[in-house]
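User: Reviewer 2 asked us to show a designed sequence for the structure in our supplementary figure. I'm pasting the structure tokens here. Could you produce the per-position amino acids so we can include them in the response letter?
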């Protein structure tokens, strides 16, 4: 069982559009996921514009990768280093901790993810 950054079972990030490295709705990962698509975000216009400005266009559909293009409000598994870059530039997207894979913490400290958390776990003490 894959775990989230709170230590629980990894929850679904998004199915409309279908997200995940494996396009299974979760931010599950594996050795073939070089970029670590492990941070579940709720896309914002600011985040999407920031990503486009650093060469990571997430709004243009890429059917060859089963990528529909994102709009604000979409939930999506993003590359951990890209989320951290947005964080450092003041444009971080909100994070769904329960759907963010524990491997994201290899790149982004949990404290940074918690700053932008939009979910409340069953035990809110886990956020402290």
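Assistant: Here is a per-position design you can include in the supplement:
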């Amino acid at each position: 069982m894959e775990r989230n950054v709170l230590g629980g079972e990894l929850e679904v990030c998004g199915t409309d559009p279908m997200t995940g490295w494996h396009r299974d709705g979760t931010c599950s990962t594996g050795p073939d996921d070089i970029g670590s698509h492990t941070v579940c975000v709720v896309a914002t216009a600011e985040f999407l514009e920031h990503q486009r400005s650093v060469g990571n266009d997430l709004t243009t559909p890429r059917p060859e990768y089963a990528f529909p293009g994102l709009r604000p409000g979409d939930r999506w598994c993003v590359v951990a280093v890209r989320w951290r870059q947005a964080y450092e530039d003041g444009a971080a997207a909100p994070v769904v901790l329960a759907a963010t894979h524990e491997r994201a913490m290899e790149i982004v400290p949990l404290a940074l993810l918690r700053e932008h958390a939009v979910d409340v776990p069953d035990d809110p003490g886990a956020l402290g």
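For the response letter, you might also mention the following. The beta strands are 37-42, 75-79. The longest helix spans residues 45-53.
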